[in-house]
Amino acid sequence: MVDPELEMMSRMLTVTFLGTAGSLPTPERSPSAVLINREGELVLFDCGEGTQRQMMRAKTGMMSLDTIFITHHHADHILGMPGLLETMAFQGRREPVTIAGPVRTSEVVGLFDRLCYYSRKFPVRALELEPGDVVRRDGYEVEAVRTCHSVPSLGYCLREDPRPGRFDRMRAMELGIPPGPLFGRLQRGEMVEVEGRIVRPEEVMGPPRPGRTIIYTGDTRPTQEVEEASRGADLLIHDGSLDDGMADWAVETMHSTAGEAARIAERAGVRRLVLTHISSRYSDDVGPLIEDARRHFPGAQVAEDLLKIEVKLRDR
């Protein structure tokens, strides 16, 4: 039988906010970057200036990173990539790195390739995505989501595969299955034979349990596509650059206010909302953002650099 504590440890999903600044860095906030650690596999969303140093400060490691998803090509979201790739090369990396993003990502990767001076022993692959495209990985997928910014842009939805249902130990024993290796086989989806009778996994397993879902918008106005992708999500990381009193400026610069992000979260029924891409005008006080967001979504929070969130497993 699977130990619940061991299962929790093997299915860790940690989000580290490496950079939470708006267009300008501040002494407290670095440019945009969010790192997800899923069972030791690292996935990076945006890579603003200084991202590798933030990874060092957060002690996340970097050599198990194999994909960087870029939301758009503004400097505050991409300038950390050349240095990060150089450090990987200097440390002897051999495994390929994929850089995925919207149209012209290949051009950006080519430019960074020409800037690098240290001989790399690993390939860097560019992958250009359209809304709805899916990048498949072992146990999860990342879907590109249409967003609305001043240049071609994408958000991303990381969605885990469903997990098997709970194992009904008592039902298995009623069917004559002794505790031991046969329990494990059934939990892995295998049929077993006991005293000439075939027992199928569905006879002793509950309904499948949902995987976890994380949405990262990058810079964007509120969009229906983000709201739809966020339905029932465990965590929505949304552009919350400005307070609601600056709604006109948010429209002009194609960002979201805290209240707009919170209304998306409320309608989508997400479990947790974290605002990021925080304008430097709130360096001394993020209170207006929190107040506007919590008016619609109690519990909303404003990200800080090096904030870590553990997204827990759930049964439904």
Write structural notes for this entry.
The N terminus is likely disordered. The protein has 11 helices and 16 strands. 40% of the residues are buried. Strand 3, helix 2 and strand 4 form a beta-alpha-beta unit. The strands form 3 sheets. A 7-stranded mixed sheet has the order 6-5-4-3-2-1-16, with helices on one face. A 7-stranded mixed sheet has the order 7-8-9-12-13-14-15. A two-stranded antiparallel ribbon has the order 10-11. With 316 residues, it is of the alpha/beta class. Helix 10 packs parallel to helix 11. The radius of gyration is 22 Å and the shape is globular. It folds into 2 domains: 259 residues, Ribonuclease Z/Hydroxyacylglutathione hydrolase-like (Metallo-beta-lactamase, Chain A); 35 residues, no CATH class.
